[in-house]
Amino acid sequence: MVELPLITPNDCTLLLIDQQAGLAFGVESVARQTLLGNVVALAKTATLFELPIIASTSASTVYSGPVMPAIQAAIGDVKAVERRNMNLWEDETARAAVVATGRKRLLVSGLLTEACVSFPVLSAIEEGYDVSVVADACGGLTPESHSLALRRMEAAGATMTSWIQVLLELQRDWTRHETYAGARGIVEAHAGGYGIGLSYARDMIHPPQP
């Protein structure tokens, strides 16, 4: 039997790279509020399924600021690794944190797609990691440069995915009761019409009592 290449809560790590307001100001590839909501949904998903989360920041005290508050709230007490290099993989402390998880599958979200996302993705792939870029939780300077960076990473072997696909892939079965309520709550809060549909279906099956 061929093993399906689906991620599981036991085999992947989430990298949140430079999710900082100072860098978000430069994002033009997607509406910033939409991007923030997507990253928060992804962070909540990783927390719900107890994935290791590695957050990293750069220039946090001189330009970029800390991890954006809504994202930090979603990842709890995870402390960001500060670095100077644009490539997380070339920073000894940040790379060591990834290696220490013992997991070879990475989910990557970050700013900006053209540099601080694509550089470590390309480096990790070269070292044999299986990398999925959560494309709707990354932001670039322009739609064109964001798209080109995604294409370059995909050509190198990265898989493109979205935060909702990550959540559904980890949940896989709505009868998994230990994560059902949390997963449903994330969908209802962040998945637009799909979330509205889940809320509607719940209320139709179990109408609120007067």
TrEMBL record:
Pfam families: Isochorismatase (PF00857). Residues 13-164 form the Isochorismatase-like domain. CDD domains: YcaC_related (cd01012). InterPro entries: Hydrolase_YcaC-like (IPR053152), Isochorismatase-like_dom (IPR000868), Isochorismatase-like_sf (IPR036380). PANTHER family: HYDROLASE, HYDROLASE YCAC-RELATED. This is Nicotinamidase-related amidase. It comes from Rhizobium miluonense. The lineage of its organism: Bacteria, Pseudomonadati, Pseudomonadota, Alphaproteobacteria, Hyphomicrobiales.
